Amino acid sequence: MPLLSSDGSGSALPGTAMDAVIAALRSAGCVFAEDEAELILATARTPDEVAAMVDRRVAGLPLEHVLGWAQFHGLRIGLEPGVFVPRRRTEFLVDQAVSLAPGASLVVDLCCGSGAVGAALAACLDGPELHASDIDPAAVRCARRNVAPYAGHVHEGDLFAALPGTLRGRVDILAANVPYVPTDEVGLLPPEARDHEPLAALDGGADGLDLVRRVAREAPRWLAPGGCLLVETSEHQAATAVETFASAGLIARLTVSEEGWAHVVVGVRPDGTAAGFTEHRSPPA
Q1: Angle at 165 between CA 162 and CA 167, to 5 degrees
Q2: Calpha distance 43→41 (Å, rounded)
Q3: Cα dihedral sign, 71-76-81-85
Q4: Fewest C-beta in 10 Å: which of 97, 115, 217, 285?
Q5: Residue (of 172, 118, 175, 178) closest to 149 by Cα position
Q6: What is the pTM for the complete model shown?
Q7: Category of 116 on φ-ψ map: left (φ > 0), alpha (ψ -120 to 50) or beta
Q8: What distance in Å separates the CA atoms of residue 204 and residue 250, rounded to the nearest whole number?
Q9: Per-residue pLDDT reduced to its tens digit, 124-148
Q10: How many angstroms separate the Cα of 252 from the Cα of each of 111, 192, 228?
Q11: What are the two backbone dihedrals, phi and then psi, of residue 277, each rounded to the nearest 5 degrees?
């Protein structure tokens, strides 16, 4: 299906190009073909790039990898193939962190992937010191670019082992968007995720909570008094995650966005001022 004009100039005819891109995406089963076509045409610089991007999308590459960026919490987060795509529901985790610690001066983004959460937190807060870590070298490269505008530091390694020891006991916000898909359910994920995102960013172990347990166990050593840990889980994992946080000595609660289908477990290191810290649910849309 031609994406370019036939006048020999090689220039794209906007209406014809849009229709052609939409048709190609629809034939590949893209549910939001019109929206995706607009993004592709707005991002591509030449007709050849349009054609190449459509080909990659039709082949099953996630749209965000095709575009080279994802929209997250008002930011354009740069991506590259093989890096976990930030989910829009995770914006709720960012909102919860900012509401809990609006004056945070030290923020850590564990399992940072592209660095989207860390960048969003830094953009919302007043110039915090930002550190992030990931075990995947490709994610680390990507995150370094995304947090550079906020003077962020990205470390390669496994969870807390990657962080400078000087951060212990000082972290105000510890965001850990760790993988939480149970191993047996990874194969049920959409092809865009299971075929194009790293398994280590998806597989959370037998019940999906292996890394949640590891993070909760170590978090009190890294949090400042009153500092908060936030992780995202599924609805059926949330109660167990809350218990895990509590067992680690954190004051734990579950926050839920009915509209965004997001479940965020929050744990606060006690500092004597956390009375009344109870479960909260955001109002339905």
Answers
A1: 100
A2: 6
A3: negative
A4: 285
A5: 118
A6: 0.86
A7: alpha
A8: 21
A9: 999 999 999 999 999 999 999 999 9
A10: 21, 33, 10
A11: -80, 95
